Amino acid sequence: MRWRAVAVVVASSLVACASARRNEPTPRLAPNAAVTPAGFDPAGVGSLEVRGANGDTSLARLASVHVDARQAGDMAEVEATHTFHNDSDTVLEGTFRFPMPDGALLTGLSMMIDGKLMEGELVEREKARKTYESIVDGMQDPALLEWEHGSIFKMRVFPLEPRQDKLVVVRYLAPLRRDADGWSFVQSSRGAAESELRVDWQGERIFHEHSVGGDRIARARARPTSVVLREDREDGSYAVVRLRPDWSRVPSPKRQAPQSWFVIVDTSRSALEEMPRQLEALEAVLRGLPASAQFRVVTSDLEARSAPQGLQPVTDATVRAALGFVQSITPDGASDLGRALEVASELASVAPDSALLYLGDCEPTWGVTDARTLAAELRTPFYPVLLGASVNEELGGELAQASGGRRARVRSREELDAFVRTLGDPVRSLGGVELKGPPGTELLTSGPLSLEPGRDLELFVKAPPGRDPLQGVSARAKVNGSSFDLMPRALAEVARGPAKRFGAALVRRLEKNAQPAPEIVKASLDYGVMSKLTSFLVLESEEAYARFAIDRKRARAAEAPRVTGANLESSEGADISADRVQPGDPEIFIDAARDAVRVTVELPFGETKVASYDPEARAGRGAWMVRFLVPLETPEGTYEALARIVHADGHLEIRQVRYSVDSTAPTLDVRLSAASRPGVVEVLVTQAENEKQRDLKRVELLTPSGAVHQLVAIRWGVFRALIPRQELGAGTLRVVGFDQALNHSVKELLLP
Predict the structure, then answer these.
(1) Which residue has the higher pLDDT, 141 or 502?
(2) Strand ranges (DSSP E) for 21-151?
């Protein structure tokens, strides 16, 4: 039998393309996907080490990883499902380590217990540990995930039953990568060796391999996104603004590039796995120095050792000698970055035009670890080249900014080579950025108040509910007496994530300023983002959370009354989800209590589906969900199914569930005309069908400059937008319209 889906696109997408079904054994990869060797890229998947009851240690098998990612502005919402298998005949406790991508925010954790996916709760760290330990002693099923160091998170899982699978889901927000061609989502296979790895982007399969090697990268293009993102919540209006100056207007500094380079190489234990890449980077850096430059290498772990040769010119022989000196050091011990800066600064103090260049993770684990104290050790510009799966990019940026150097986060050989080419150039930067906002508006940033080419400064804004978050907000910088306005002139794009990103920036500020632990914990819990003082804890049941007095914020959110589009479209207690439907995999949500014993749906073509509870459904209120396919030969129209709900008290409730089968895309008529206001163009999109057949629900357009606009409905089937004429420019205007069933049409207009 042939099948078709009720809907085939996600409503927020501007890319109209077909998708292979997710259950195909050998899916066809999406046309915009690319698979390349991994190189330096550290963003991979987790690893699991287990310990048996007799104390024996062995490696468990990571059977499969499924990464499902969707675009949210300039971020990706990622759900990484790891399936572990215990091949032994004994009960094991596992330690799972997960390297988060740079700049990612950990937002959720769940684990399969007794066939049901239990959602974790964010809890104060010490309370989570005590709860976990007490439950492990009782041989139950808890999971505890907490920060370990850098961007590495550690998760303890117990029990791993003999010859059985254990499924763990990690959710996070990760920045999209940006290059000259635009934005893209990137996923590395590093850490997934010998496992099955599947990667989906926007509902399309972009990577699928069994027994995958650890040197592969899946990459998919993302749609253009605005430099201003906005999210409105009950507690406030949030915005993320990417501050990006016009560097052609910023004069080059008069100071020349350094000539004497003291290169610090991290040789601590954390650098053991990355040493081959660090040696490759060291050779590239040394050979890329200006011909007139000289260098000396310093290794850094618990001790700081300088190469005995002293300052040397750049030749084949001196580069080989430097590599040999580093290779003679066995990576071991902690990282005393302060001591390395002290030794290198003393050497640089007697050398003209000197600078320090650092290769490693910039994560001090011994001695001085405070950023201000470390910056006080610097007397010359500091150039950190950050390598590895876990780096302290914030510290590297602060030290570079404070000393007048330049920071580079290197994930590929291409990025390394691009940085090396700048070593002969003076550092161009904008410092002293001034931020102002009206009373009641809070402003936070992603790092020091400075900018340099290739590194934007993100501004996070929170305003009172209902207020435009950018009203009265300014960002300016001064260079040689000239003032630069850094606020972009762009329309805000509505996206998920700005509130959590503001919360993460708030947690970072509180941690950096050594604020009391209760304040940090409160901010972490309020915004649902993990901190060093909070952990995700998964328990076996709602009763277990209540027994240990753990507040279930997700449960309360599910009960809170909200008015959403789904409420207005359905009065039957069930609806087709407009924001989660997948190609070939539609869903029905049934509004029933979470503690219901069983929920099933009898479909009109004879199949019965068992529902599972989804706490994120219906705008966070939670609902029971089933997935199903519709036979291709099914005529369009409205159909009924039966939902059978067995409640916690044992009584049976039967409801009718209505859904529509609609595979006809709307016909769009797009007209452009001059608006009443000078310099403004009116874009009018009308559904061409007669008024009774019109079901146009959402219209978006993409301008040639890359700006995204969502049109406003002015009457049934008619949408309108007013766009500045200069923003349209010349090129192709792309318009996408979605109907109630999420069928879509695309229309392109060539602008003169």
Answers:
(1) 502
(2) 33-37, 47-52, 57-59, 61-72, 75-85, 92-99, 105-113, 116-119, 121-124, 143-149
Alpha helices, DSSP H, located in 681-749 = 725-728
Task: State the Cα angle at 721 between 715 and 726, rounded to 5°.
Answer: 165
| Euclidean distance between CA atoms 62 and 81, whole angstroms | 11
Domain hosting 273: range is: 260-420
The DSSP symbol for 415 reads H
The Cα–Cα gap between 399 and 436 comes to 25
Domain boundary among the residues 420, 446, 468 is at: 420
Domain boundary among 637, 661, 685: 661
- What confidence tens digit (pLDDT) does each residue in 183-223 have? 999 888 877 767 888 899 988 888 888 888 767 888 899 98
Cα Rg of the chain, angstroms: 28
24-35 burial: b if 16+ Cβ within 10 Å, else e: eeebebbebbee
Q: Are residues 287 and 237 in the same domain?
A: no
- Rounded to whole angstroms, the Cα distance separating 109 from 117 reads 10
Helix (H) or strand (E) run with residue 184 in it = strand 182-188
Residue 209 has a CB neighbour count (10 Å cut-off) of 16
pLDDT confidence band for 582 (50 / 70 / 90): very low
CA atoms in the 13 A half-sphere facing the CB of 483: 7
Closest CA relative to residue 123, chosen from 526, 530, 535, 546: 535
CA distance 554 to 443: 27
Specify the DSSP class assigned to residue 127: H
CATH number of the domain where residue 706 is located: 2.60.40.1930
Q: Cα separations (Å) of 327 from 270, 281, 321?
A: 15, 13, 10
**Spatial CA neighbour of 544 closest among 204, 233, 114:** 114
Looking at residue 336, the DSSP 8-state letter turns out to be: -
Residues 243 and 264 in one domain: no
Interatomic CA distance for residues 651 and 642, integer angstroms? 16
Q: Contact 189/455 with Cβ under 8 angstroms?
A: no
Amino acid identity for residue 427 in this structure: V
Give the integer Cα–Cα distance in Å for 489 and 228: 9
What residues have CB less than 8 Å from 318, skipping those under 6 apart? Answer: 286, 295, 309, 312
In 3D space, the residue among 152, 9, 220 whose CA is nearest the CA of residue 666 turns out to be: 9
Domain count for the chain: 5
